[in-house]
DNA sequence: TAGATTGTTAATCGATTAACAATC
DNA sequence: TAGATTGTTAATCGATTAACAATC
């Protein structure tokens, strides 16, 4: 009994930020970065809400979790707010990462220069295709996947970007977990079944596409109904 | 008064599926497709829940919205269920789409053969770079972006995949809306401000990356606390 | 039949929205 | 000061989870 209480008291403040809030933070960061470039110094929750089509109260609640305190009548200090939000997402320091699967998507990601703004530093690519091994794609070397486990251990890599075909994803993921990987950013459209202490985030391309095609069907249906009602 | 009531009665059943449910549907489809390949004929909500780390009750509620009725003791007919889920997402018929921005990510997407499983058929690419125009990338022709508006109108294209740099995204999106586009799948990490009847789905790479890096920070922090407590 | 599984109705939980006092 | 904006506390809403009856 006493033990349970203790655990709850320790864990509660840690998993503190609601995931919907967490998913909105990058939107704030993106907007604020744009505003900063125009030399704006303060920004109000109303302004942010209007630009992002959100509710001002929600914006204030969201921004509050970063710990920044706004000034009545003025709003939030742009620099402070940006720094705090970036810190909340852990985007203010770099994490080395491996990318596994140097196909067309993997190569595109290797070429994406902006990952450093998001705390990500890709240090090597891996592929099982001998023809790709040894190549340098956008300045990043491609190594044989056989060396993956060893390199994760040796370099103490925490983050893996998984861009292999669906069929190979589960197996490689398990290997990496074995080697001590802490987080996997999964681009393969398949569910990875791994120990629950491993952080898995799915890039979820099919998810957002599904929402889009479904909404489109609804919209078309609705328009047809309106026509029939006239 | 009477008018408002009428609108509500018409709209309620249309926007019926909760978005969290909608976002889980692709996961079900992916799993069921794999099971189908093993010649399984029936599947229970418990089995699905176990494979996807979900709650069985939630799975049953989710599957119910597709209209499929399960058989007590047996579960759901795999083929029926798959067909119904694909229909719910509108993945059972093809939609022509344009892709705008044939950079490395855009090219990677042009090469992605599986979009047809998701109801998507990319018929042309567009780019503002004269050197890319005229090229054929993975069988898909690249046209000048100056022709975009006209082609959307002429071919009655409903879906656009937007893979241009952030700075250009808003302007091109507005152009496409002008031309009558109904839905935009946005890969640019910027918020598009458009009339609210336009369907915008963000690929949200930064969102999922943000969740990952945040959770990683929490995890590391927690582990440090545990060490200090020992 | 007994047992497994579905599907529905009710309870709980958490996020969003509203109301309002505090403050520059 | 008056007015705009913040931040907190309460109310509402919707999704998840629980309980249980129905059925093969």
Give a written overview of the molecule.
The structure is a homodimer of 230-residue chains. The first copy, chain A, has 230 residues and is of the alpha/beta class. Chain A folds into two domains: 2-88, Winged helix-like DNA-binding domain superfamily/Winged helix DNA-binding domain (Arc Repressor Mutant, subunit A), CATH 1.10.10.10; 95-205, NAD(P)-binding Rossmann-like Domain (Rossmann fold, 3-Layer(aba) Sandwich). Chain A has nine helices and nine strands. In chain A, strands 5-6-4-3-7-8-9 form a seven-stranded mixed beta sheet. In chain A, strands 1-2 form a two-stranded antiparallel sheet. In chain A, helix 2 (19-37) packs antiparallel against helix 5. Chain A starts with a helix and ends with a helix. The relative contact order of chain A is 0.08. The model of chain A is unreliable at 1-14 (pLDDT under 50). Chains A and B meet through helix 2, helix 6, strand 9 and helix 9 of A and helix 2, helix 6, strand 9 and helix 9 of B. Chain A binds a DNA duplex (24 and 24 nucleotides) through helix 4.
